[in-house]
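Sharing a chain and its predicted structure for anyone who wants a worked example. Both blocks are below, sequence first, tokens second.
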Amino acid sequence: MLFTNFIRRRKFLLTALIALCGATQAQTQATPYPSKPVKLVVPYAPGGSTDQLARAVADHLGRALGQSVVVENKPGGNTIVAADFVAKSPADGYTLFMGSSASLAVNPLLYNQLPYDPKADFAGISMLAASPLILVVPQDLPVKSVSEFIAYAKAKPGSMNYASVGNGNPLHLAGELFKVSAGIEMVHVPYNGSSPALTALIGNQVQAMFDVVLTSNPHIKSGKLRALGVTGSQRIPLLPEVPTVSEAGLPGYEAGIWFAMVAPKATSPAIVQRLNQEVVKILKLPEMRARFDALALELIPTAPEDVAAYAAKEQGRWAKLIKEKGIRLD
């Protein structure tokens, strides 16, 4: 009798537990996304054009989703700190990443021990923006065009230095591609950030820099630096008088930076699609386009699958140069 009662109680408890689990699961499935604030992780410090883009998108996205989208800056390690953090976050749609050309395409070519895998760890949501760089020189350097710069460098082999914000970043790679394309020699001098690099350039300690347009433009306007060429395929509204490097003396040359929104790989396709729809709408807003045209950022809304395809194309584009130049960071 005791045993029978025990069995009955077990069956009752088991039935109740199954019912409770089912109710909990149904409640979880019925919970709309998002039901709490969303985090957008940016791999750079506050204030730059990337951060401005992230905050503008986050503001609009928060209103569209009905929940706050909070930007969290995690600079360091050539974007690795932020990328690794998001890759290892729960795949629930509440932690998103402002991926870049560095984190999604170039870093796997530079590091043997990268703690994350862009292909295996991220699901694309949408491309966000692309921007060319700008070739700038000190005002005292006696060159006024890309062709004059190349001729000057050839006349002084090995004596030209160019700055970047660190080994392996897109600014460094743009300089290496320029050297190969132009057939010139320049010594790469990496600095810990844009400010010291620009200070060295203005002070004639280095003779050139491929820089983000936003950071160089105030020095171009003040007359401390001279802009020789934009590294994209077309001129930019911010500096319409500055030709592209290609049209100014080095046909076919092109380099730049780009950004995409991604989530941890196992994020629900339904959540990815919801985010994609909202982000695409945001990037097509006239006020967004006007604002970021002024920062030399071209907004490029895409389908989720286009992110991985674009990253793969860019990786293939830089792989040969990185291998030939022996650029490694570990």
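Comments welcome. The chain has twelve helices and ten strands.
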